[in-house]
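Recall that a protein's primary structure is simply its ordered list of amino acids. Everything else, from secondary elements to tertiary packing, is in principle encoded there. The following example makes that idea concrete.
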Amino acid sequence: MVRWRRRTVEPIDVLVVCTGNLCRSPLIETLLRSELPDLRIESRGTHAPVGEPWHPLALEVLAERGHVVTGQAQQLTARDVKAATLVLTAEGWHRAEVVRLDAAAEERVFTLLEAVRLLPDDRSGILPIDQLGRLLATQLSEQRSEYNDDIADPLSGPLGTFRECLQNINRAVLALARTAR
């Protein structure tokens, strides 16, 4: 007799999402891991070319900052979303894709830039990642204005475009890391 067992999914503290999981989400993942080494941080793509190596220019700009990493594109799944405590995306439409996969994620998914914008000015102390997600959700519910919190995709640009993208991501990651653990 064959018995089916559910596979357990390891919790992900922060799941980072972009389109192909080739440029932006690997940049964000790498910088977040550097700043928050005690957290499990993973990245995925909404339309990932599964198994393709991370973009060489993304790896080059990370190496320029001392991060020698490699990785392969992985597809975002509902299982990943369910396992994540906090989901950070590169663009607003990625956030919509996350919620499409798991409607319960709506309260814990934000673009990276949105998350930083929503941090209260008077914040003090470090919050566990689940409390940070709740704080961001509360802040979002109190703000009704629309913002463009998208990180431009450097995919087809030259090295300078990747450097600029990394610089923008780095500022956001540092601001977020001052609040999270």
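The CA atoms of residues 118 and 139 lie 6 Å apart. Strands lie at 12-18, 41-45, 84-89, 109-111.
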